[in-house]
Amino acid sequence: MNVPNQITVSRILLIPIFMIFLLIPFSWGELFLFGASIPIHHFVAAIIFILAASTDWLDGYYARKYNLVTNMGKFLDPLADKLLISAAFISLVGLDMFPAWAAIVILSREFAVTGLRLVSAADGDVIAASIWGKWKTVSQIVAASAVMLHNTIFELFSFPFATIMIYVSVILTILSGVDYFIKNKHVLVKSM
């Protein structure tokens, strides 16, 4: 397994660690940042989540720079993203910190595009991430991070940054899903 794929696997391995800190209510107290009170375990979870999410950029950069792009990487990278994002949003819904409707829209798109990728893979083709898919992922990471950090710096100005990012991520999720299906409709037509 090459280095970019190892970095991608590390993202997957960070998911349970992130979830432990997010979901287990450690009695470490509160952290006060920029007018917001954050349970310390949520802050630690957010840092681990952001670290895990940043490996998405790192593995892609390394793969392109050293010409190590593989079909396995094209498959594993979006899978790792989906696992990380799904774990975050499902956990946040369970904690009543994220709206269930938004998580349903986001996860439905993720399953639909994964299904499209699987149909394409059965024909020997790999669908790489699009620019819309990348922006969607960034917006989801920012939304989840802002929610985990309890809208920290923006709470000082009573600006609902986390809420706005939830809506932005839902819109970009829908747009990227539509883009994937339009660009790859031949995959569905071919498989019927």
UniProtKB/TrEMBL annotation:
InterPro entries: CDP-alcohol_PTase-I, CDP-OH_P_trans, CDP-OH_PTrfase_TM_dom, CDP_ALCOHOL_P_TRANSF_CS, Phosphatidylglycerol_P_synth. It catalyses: a CDP-1,2-diacyl-sn-glycerol + sn-glycerol 3-phosphate = a 1,2-diacyl-sn-glycero-3-phospho-(1'-sn-glycero-3'-phosphate) + CMP + H(+). GO terms for cellular component: plasma membrane. It is found in: Cell membrane. PANTHER family: CDP-DIACYLGLYCEROL--GLYCEROL-3-PHOSPHATE 3-PHOSPHATIDYLTRANSFERASE 1, CHLOROPLASTIC (PTHR14269:SF62), CDP-DIACYLGLYCEROL--GLYCEROL-3-PHOSPHATE 3-PHOSPHATIDYLTRANSFERASE-RELATED (PTHR14269). Its EC number is 2.7.8.5. The keyword Secreted does not apply. This protein catalyzes the committed step to the synthesis of the acidic phospholipids. GO terms for molecular function: CDP-diacylglycerol-glycerol-3-phosphate 3-phosphatidyltransferase activity. Belongs to the CDP-alcohol phosphatidyltransferase class-I family. It is a multi-pass membrane protein. PROSITE patterns: CDP_ALCOHOL_P_TRANSF. The chain crosses the membrane at residues 12-34, 40-62, 83-107, 157-182. The keyword Chloroplast does not apply. It is an enzyme of class 2 (transferase). One of its GO terms (biological process) is phosphatidylglycerol biosynthetic process. Keywords: Cell membrane, Lipid biosynthesis, Lipid metabolism, Membrane, Phospholipid biosynthesis, Phospholipid metabolism, Transferase, Transmembrane, Transmembrane helix. It comes from Evansella cellulosilytica (strain ATCC 21833 / DSM 2522 / FERM P-1141 / JCM 9156 / N-4) (Bacillus cellulosilyticus). Pathway: Lipid metabolism; Phospholipid metabolism; phosphatidylglycerol biosynthesis; phosphatidylglycerol from CDP-diacylglycerol: step 1/2. This is CDP-diacylglycerol--glycerol-3-phosphate 3-phosphatidyltransferase. Its main location: membrane.
